[in-house]
Fold:
Amino acid sequence: MLINMLLVSVGAVFGVLTRLLLSNWMKTKWPMQFPLATLCINISGSFLLGLLFASGLNSHFQLLIGTGFMGSYTTFSTFKLENIELHLKKKYRIFWSYIGASYVLGIGFAALGLWIGNTYL
Structure:
């Protein structure tokens, strides 16, 4: 049990640092009203989690990468907050585009990760 908590914790530290660095870099590189950084992070995380799930790696590695790293790398709470902000600012086109792209691309890329993992790993 202690090893599981340690694996998740270590993975989470690296996941949140990766998200922070990537998000800040993207926001300075491509400043816009559309929350592109969160969308890209969540979509890439969906793909990688699908790939990891299909890989059949041992449970310790899945805890480290899947639960720890991916759990803190992807960010459902930021996604929700950004949607609330877009709605309050009456940026409805961006609001609906962001929701649609997040769900459709997120599920699509998770499925792609599963397919690649099941086919090639």
Notes: Helices lie at 2-29, 36-55, 59-73, 76-88, 92-120.
